[in-house]
Design brief:
By secondary structure, this protein is mostly beta strands. It has 2 helices and 13 strands.
Length: about 170
């Protein structure tokens, strides 16, 4: 498990005074500011974060050290991380996306279906993006209790009962 959890990303500049468009990945999006300061993935840079206001698709925010539109443009795509120990402990049936990536997925009969490449959410619900040698392409498995009855982080595996015709 990674010691850093990605909490958000900079989608670009907002206005001409150095503010940025921030997309929060927190369950309660506005809580991202409570974990400030946030760091880059390698931990080499740290940024204080102040939310200004909600905007379409996220927040208008200020990053420490970003004062101009040009500086805000330069950090577009920057992902912001917080140490795992500063985040709340999750209930048994909830997971940080980063903990699911790389897990092997088996069907209820024990056959390997693939490996989790990423976790996607396009508005309706979470989807596990699976890839593997036996798959012709990428498969998106619904991350619901019906389709994924067991997640075993200790064993590094997921047991799935995929919908008919998915594989």
């Amino acid at each position: 498990m990674s010691d850093l959890i990605c909490l958000g990303a900079i989608a670009g500049s907002y206005g001409v005074r150095g503010e940025v468009r921030l997309k929060s990945f927190c369950a309660n999006p506005e809580e991202i500011a409570t974990y400030s300061p946030l760091t880059t993935e390698d931990g080499s840079q740290s940024y204080t974060l102040t939310l200004s206001r909600a905007i379409k698709g996220g927040f208008c925010a200020r990053l420490g050290g970003v004062e101009t539109k040009e500086q805000a443009d330069a950090v577009k795509g920057l992902r912001l991380f917080a140490p795992r120990d500063r985040l709340p402990k999750l209930p048994d049936d909830e997971y940080y996306y980063t903990d699911l990536v790389g897990l092997e997925v088996f069907d209820t009969g024990g056959a390997l279906l693939g490996t989790v490449k990423s976790v996607q959410n396009h508005g309706a619900s979470d989807l596990l993006e699976l890839q593997g040698d036996t798959l012709k392409g990428t498969v998106f498995l619904p991350f619901t209790l019906a389709a994924v009855p067991t997640v075993d982080l200790d064993q590094g595996r997921i047991i799935a009962d995929p919908p008919e015709g998915l594989f």
